[in-house]
């Protein structure tokens, strides 16, 4: 990667100012790699799970000693929402202990941690955009373990950013948009849940936000919400995917109880982004505008 537009990273003694990305082979990790490459941001080290296990304390210590990071971005997580209900111990290890392990190493190496969390920390029973100060009451094992991870990071490390997001999609990895495009091309009709409401998040936009925090050297530590702007249901999200891609499939709205899952999902997952917009002076794209960009790349 080039060095133009190099971020103004904090100069700390003899630090190399590396940015370490854990979980780099996942959707968000790949999007960060895309944006960093396009913007010439360096030095960024992308660490896929097979090379950087956040549960391996000794391995983490070696990586931190090797790279001496100024910033660490944790995209690694146990995200199989339904499987987590039967695999709670493993989900807890990855989502809480893994996050805590990274925070401990950040303390030792005077690094800032950017930890990615989720809208699933909320119960989703309040029909208004939720702020960072609203009480987190997760209703699934996945949501609980992600909240536990947030609390562990905040307890161990002052210099942290926790970013809650949801309904993530992009050109990379498996996600709702790519699934709808695939199924829409194979079937005549699809039943889509219409009574769960939230905001889609284009992972490229989120990656851009994360790298902006790093490039500005912000010390406005704390928890922030980030998704695209607007509100929609899964049904209307799917309809938008079909409309924009000109996919000829009949979408049928159904209730949540018509499509039972192991884990309960929040019915209302709209997050208030005022804090992020005011703190960092950013404009967040409308969800459908970002969806158009993503589908144009996929096609």
TrEMBL record:
User: What is one Gene Ontology biological process annotated in the Swiss-Prot or TrEMBL record?
Assistant: dTDP-rhamnose biosynthetic process
Q: Which residues form the RmlD-like substrate binding domain?
A: 18-298
UniProt keywords, alphabetically:
NADP, Oxidoreductase
Gene Ontology CC: one annotated term: cytosol
Catalysed reaction(s)?
A: dTDP-beta-L-rhamnose + NADP(+) = dTDP-4-dehydro-beta-L-rhamnose + NADPH + H(+)
Q: Which GO terms describe its molecular function?
A: dTDP-4-dehydrorhamnose reductase activity
Q: In which pathway does it act?
A: Carbohydrate biosynthesis; dTDP-L-rhamnose biosynthesis
For the protein in the UniProt heading, the enzyme class is oxidoreductase
Q: Which residues form the signal peptide?
A: none
Presence of keyword NADP: yes
Q: Which Gene3D superfamilies match?
A: NAD(P)-binding Rossmann-like Domain, UDP-galactose 4-epimerase, domain 1
- The UniProt record lists the EC number as 1.1.1.133
Q: Per its UniProt record, what NCBIfam families does this chain match?
A: rmlD
| Its biological purpose | Catalyzes the reduction of dTDP-6-deoxy-L-lyxo-4-hexulose to yield dTDP-L-rhamnose.
Please give the name of this protein: dTDP-4-dehydrorhamnose reductase
Species of origin reads Mucilaginibacter xinganensis
Q: What is the lineage of its organism?
A: Bacteria, Pseudomonadati, Bacteroidota, Sphingobacteriia, Sphingobacteriales
């Amino acid at each position: 990667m080039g060095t133009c537009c190099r971020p103004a990273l904090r100069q700390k003694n003899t630090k190399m100012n590396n940015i370490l990305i854990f979980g780099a082979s996942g959707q968000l990790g790949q999007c960060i790699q895309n944006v960093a490459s396009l913007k010439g941001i360096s030095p960024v080290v992308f660490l896929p799970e097979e090379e950087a296990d956040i549960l391996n304390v000794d391995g983490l210590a070696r990586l931190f000693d090797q790279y001496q990071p100024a910033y660490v971005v944790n995209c690694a997580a146990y995200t199989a929402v339904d499987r987590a209900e039967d695999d709670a111990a493993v989900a807890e290890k990855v989502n809480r202990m893994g996050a805590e392990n990274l925070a401990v190493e950040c303390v030792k190496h005077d690094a800032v941690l950017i930890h990615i969390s989720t809208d699933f920390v909320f119960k989703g029973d309040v029909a208004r955009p939720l702020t960072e100060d609203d009480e987190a009451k997760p209703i699934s094992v996945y949501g609980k373990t992600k909240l536990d991870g947030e609390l562990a990071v905040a307890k161990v490390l002052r210099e942290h950013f926790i970013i809650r997001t949801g309904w993530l999609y992009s050109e990379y990895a498996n996600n709702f948009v790519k699934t709808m495009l695939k199924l829409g091309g194979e079937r005549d009709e699809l039943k889509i849940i219409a009574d769960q409401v939230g905001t889609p998040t284009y992972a490229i936009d989120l990656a851009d936000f994360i790298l902006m925090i790093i490039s500005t050297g912000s010390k406005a530590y704390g928890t922030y919400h980030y998704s695209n702007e607007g509100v929609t249901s899964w049904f209307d999200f799917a309809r938008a995917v079909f409309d924009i891609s000109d996919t000829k499939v009949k979408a049928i709205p159904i209730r949540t109880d018509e499509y039972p899952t192991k884990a309960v999902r929040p019915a209302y997952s709209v997050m208030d982004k005022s804090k992020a917009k005011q703190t960092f002076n950013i404009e967040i794209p409308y969800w459908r505008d970002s969806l158009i960009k993503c589908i144009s790349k996929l096609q």
